[in-house]
Amino acid sequence: MSRLILFLLLMVHSAILFAESLVIEPKHASFEPAVSSTPIRHEYTISNRGSTPVEIREWKAISGVGEVIGLPKLLEAGESQSFEVHLNLPPKVGSAGFRYALFSDEPDVERYRFTLSGFAYSLITPEQPAVDFGTRAVATGQSRPVTFSARESTPLKLANVKSAPDWLQVGIKDQTATLTIRQQPQAGFRIGTVQIATNLPQQPMVEINVRAVLAGVLSSDIYAMGFKPAEVGQSVNADVELHYSGSSDIGKLEIDLPDHWKARRSTCDAKSGDARSCLRVHVSLKVAEKGTSTGNLVFRMPGEGELAIPYGLMVLGEGQPVRELVVGNAATDERIDITRAVTGDREPLVPPPAQAPDNNESATRVARSSGPGPVKLHWSAKNESKVFGYMVYRSQDRAGPFVRVTDAPIAKRDNAAGQDNRYVFVDASVEVGKTYYYYIDSLADSGFQQRFSPVFSKTITSGKQ
After folding, report:
1. What percent of the chain has a predicted confidence (pLDDT) above 90?
2. Which of 451, 450, 444 has its CA nearest to residue 119?
């Protein structure tokens, strides 16, 4: 019995020794639904519940977004102070989550984690535009337009290009951005993001995701290369068939591979009617370390241009499951699934707008009506499992333009499954003698909007209801 008591006392003593002194409240904070690309601030409290002072050495935005402001450098025992997280929401829609960590001088504490999450939506459509020039090589000068629209009281206008990949030229006029392929010394697969400032203070920026395969004197039927997961000691192999449209000798081809890769050349026959020279290159790697590896295999004709083919490889430890393999910068969401890239079975850069839930009932009281103000809109809905909320738009002309009159999304109610949720919106900013037209959009959990109701109207006959 004495040994058991001693063991328990040792466990309690160890728990006290290794207890975390700092407490961050709230540990998991949330912000109200907000428009993408707008600033968010949230306050936290940090307390030292231990018996000795704690030095806070640094903080880190694990998600790569936001700053920690006003964090104390030292907390005495029993002391509490507040600090804030400041961030600009990325130009994305749907659920948004951001993770942070604090590091102290406590030798037995790795880090303190806390989060900030919420929902972001767009006032501008398309919400998350994507331009895909396709899997065939595109020549210099090819263009794609993207036209934006917004149902705000201030007409939307694109202001200037904030950033764009160097292989794209971006022109803007009014509400349209035109993306044009620039001449580049290196051909091959490209992925990037264009950010454009707007004149709307409530949503100061829009973003376009772009990808293309750029044409050059060298080309290949493979624009990205993926391998099945391998184990340490195994080899991965692939054949790349290169086509050359220049006037030099393809035998002068230079091959630039990452460390430990090997290449072997062989001839290949061009397809009937194809005047281009052909060369087959066998590439191989004997993997030595586990982990994920990405990079480029570069093929170069001196003085004429290059072709870069990205690759992705995952080397597994014993019993390790496969979770994800991407090419690009995951911190900026420039991602592509390599396996789909090789097979050509690719998904769009951004998800399509969520479909309306089955049997989602249309708005009620949609007929033309007249009566005193203010205007009260009533509607009901059920099966809202994929719905975040609703937005109401108004015009004084049946043909528009319509302008948003809800300051923020009307949040979905949480009623029992199968029961109708009932909603009311009151528009008090109406004038006697005028007719107002309304419709309602549903806002999906993904952040995409779609029409929920038809247009309906009310003529205001007096000022009281």
Report:
1. 40
2. 444
Reduced to 3 states, what is the DSSP secondary structure of residue 328? coil
Which residue in 144, 137, 216, 131 sits closest to 180, CA to CA? 144
Instruction: List, for residues 49-95, the tens digit of each pLDDT value.
Output: 999 999 999 999 988 899 999 999 999 999 999 999 999 998 889 98
Q: Topology of 124-214 in CATH? A: Immunoglobulin-like (2.60.40)
- pLDDT at 271 (0 to 100): 77
148: buried, middle or exposed (CB in 10 Å: 19+, 13-18, 0-12)?
buried
Q: In 388-407, which positions are buried (b, 16+ CB within 10 angstroms) versus exposed (e)?
A: bbbbbbbbeeeeeebebbbe
Nearest partner of 187 among 219, 222, 209, 224, judged by Cα: 219
CATH architecture of residue range(s) 369-460? Sandwich (2.60)
* Distance between CA atoms of residues 291 and 293, nearest Å: 7
* Domain covering 19-120: architecture: Sandwich (2.60)
* Residues facing 280 on adjacent strands: 241, 266
- Counting beta carbons within 10 angstroms of the beta carbon of residue 210, is it exposed (0 to 12), middle (13 to 18) or buried (19 or more)? buried
Q: What pLDDT, on the 0 to 100 scale, is given for residue 366? A: 37
Low-confidence ranges of the chain (pLDDT < 50): 4-18, 321-367
* Amino acid symbol at 334: E
- In this prediction, residue 360 carries a pLDDT of 41
- Quote the pTM value: 0.69
The answer to whether the CB of 248 falls within 8 A of the CB of 216 is: no
Pick the CATH number of 220-343 from 2.60.40.1640, 2.60.40.10, 2.60.40.730, 2.30.110.20: 2.60.40.10
Q: Which residues in the chain are classed under CATH 2.60.40.10? A: 19-120, 124-214, 220-343, 369-460
CB-CB neighbours of 125 under 10 Å: 18
pLDDT tens column, 186-204: 888 888 999 999 999 999 9
Which candidate, 417, 408, 451, places its Cα nearest to that of 34?
408
pLDDT at 19: 63
Total residue count of the chain as it appears in this document = 465
What letter does residue 146 receive in the DSSP assignment? E
Tokens of 267: 């001839």
